[in-house]
């Protein structure tokens, strides 16, 4: 065990204790905000594995979140209200009222399966094909959830999803995502992924199975996004087909580019900073009626970063880290 | 015709040309020889404006005027009469042979003269006439070389920059291309030739410069350099290597 | 063919005409800079809003057409100068992240200035008339859209094939460095491709607004994506392919809605992107595209 791994485990454990203690001592708004920021970190870091390490360009995270969120919400939803809210559910599901953890796993599995199908179709092609196909996937998922209204309540959205998500769960999920991404990056599979990012042909010549690794990175990212989606819906208790859409996909891209494509530290810091920024701008938007301001600033920030500091804050590196290991 | 003085060129992080100076006399064939990476191609790219110079001058003497090429864009340099036939041929693969030829005359407005130049190119390289409707990408390597030279000549240049015209061609084709270069020079066009195939280049050239690590280490007439023992050792290999198509590196 | 089917076919061709107009410019730009321009659909949106503003200001219709085309060209040139030119030579990923940022910036700038409220869009009465065409009854605007689209596409294909500028554009798209060496002013040529492609997109925005009656700042994103789908169907980078792909996509989309059970009609956008994934899977080079090593 290296020093950094030991340190990581310590931080994770201490944080878990803190996250168990905090809920009784923090008001509900701050608690929810903390959860949402952590979830953004989880999403950004998982997208970093797909886009940053492997050099793919997926915009599909919101689609996978939606799949994970709806699947999990359908499973945990109070059975007595299902007949009214989701009249067309098959009997097995109509009677189900699962606890969060297994529902989370089903949601993750569903998101992973969708990614597997799309990935097999699109990952043989380079770059922008994946970007557009995943944008298309966001549209597909939105249309399907909108039209399957006997299962999802369609465009009205599903409200009253039980608030089962606790701070410690979000902390653990985020922490484990970071640890997983970190270990992957510094393992041989991670190095192989970065080799694909730099030069796929050369990587293949060295015997790296590029397709399998790209598919793995894409599906892994989707599974984590599915979990994040399921945790989010059980945090704020509402979801509509458009809850997670293209603006979110874009914000996540801004986070990983500003942090530095491939840098986990960068993704974490950028996710925290940008979440706080857009939360801070929300009252400004509302009081001035300038809806779109925070997205506009995000877009301009991204353009500035791409032009002045194209490698983001940290490039692909992890400052203050690997030196000790 | 062309005067290069104190030229410094960087490509990315590497400092390729270091105070390179040389003269290219009008109406003659001047050859640049040297090892891979010495800076021969970089010199041509600086002349045609593809690479910017950090320092130094490239002066074209034409129409009794001096044109400072380092300050001009590639299309302005072509309009002044400097045509560059690049390494690796670089024909427009998705355009037809005919379109490739005609695009060589892009900056020219004299339609009748362009049409007659086109006929001359077909006379010079009959195969281009036979294949005029085909995609340039479907031509063989030798045919693409002819097309690239023809495309450059369609600009009616005063100075023709030729980068590795023999690269990857069969020996009999190399001889034909070199014979064509001689014809071009005989018409009064100044030729600046870069070649790995040092022996053949020196036989062809009126003047030659040896480039080592970004500057000129020796200059002389073709025959002088052919006899120079150090050039022989470094670039000509053993006797008989002169027509070896793969060149010496 | 029954009146219903004819009607559906005309609807499909009309929709396809709009897609073709967006796709053809998208493909021109992609062909020359090898980058997806995510903001292309937003230029279309700007064209629609420019029309709305000009009509409200009392500008006569023929001038509106000209101004809208100019607005589109200007938007294209601005996007090229501000984003594509400085990003030239940067890694492809950075390039299309930047164009996505431009798209989001344009959308949100419009959201802030004109709000997300859909606006009504009125064409003159003449264009709202209906014309009997055999058993079908077609809107005059539909015929205008089809005619404009066919004329623009034909003109563009001819221009690309035979004009000096068109050949220069194809040469620049084929090999930027060699294009410089034969004396093509590549910066100006690339800018011109953006200007033409974006002008056509803005024109499509005008027609789109006229046909569907409502416009909003986010209206361009999906047509922009669908233009990409059309390009993939036709073969990316080929102008004829983009046109063909646009028509096929429009017809397929309308047939999907018109011929399948009504319960599935809501899935039409899902169908379009599913088609994209299927096409990428079975024929990644599309109908007319040639294979490109970077996609293999």
Description:
The complex is a heterotrimer of chains A (325), B (249) and C (296). Chain A is mainly α. Chain A is built from 15 helices and no strands. Chain A has helices spanning 3-21, 28-53, 61-76, 79-85, 91-94, 100-122, 128-147, 149-152, 167-185, 188-198, 200-205, 210-236, 246-259, 264-288, 293-308. The longest helix of chain A is centred in the C-terminal third of the chain and has 27 residues, at 210-236. Chain A is globular and about 55 Å long. The mean pLDDT of chain A is 89. In chain B, 36% of the residues lie in helices and 27% in strands. Chain B has helices at residues 40-47, 74-79, 97-103, 111-124, 126-130, 141-153, 171-186, 198-204, 222-227, 229-236, and strands spanning 2-11, 14-24, 29-34, 55-62, 65-68, 82-85, 159-163, 190-194, 207-212, 215-221. Chain C is mainly alpha-helical and 296 residues long. Chain C has twelve helices and four strands; from the N terminus they run H-H-H-H-E-H-E-E-H-H-H-H-E-H-H-H. Chain C has helices spanning 3-33, 40-56, 61-87, 92-114, 125-128, 140-162, 164-174, 176-181, 186-212, 221-234, 239-259, 268-282; strands at 119-120, 130-133, 136-139, 214-215. A two-stranded antiparallel sheet of chain C has the order 1-4. Chain C has a two-stranded antiparallel ribbon with strand order 2-3. In chain C, a hairpin with a 2-residue loop joins strand 2 and strand 3. The longest helix of chain C is centred in the first third of the chain and has 31 residues, at 3-33. Classes of the chains: A mainly alpha (325), B alpha/beta (249), C mainly alpha (296). The interface between A and C is large, with 45 and 48 residues.
Structure summary:
The complex is a heterotrimer of chains A (325), B (249) and C (296). With 325 residues, chain A is mostly helical.
What labels describe this entry?
heterotrimer; A: 325 residues; mainly alpha; 15 helices; globular; B: 249 residues; alpha/beta; six-stranded mixed β-sheet; four-stranded antiparallel β-sheet; 10 helices; 10 strands; 36% helix
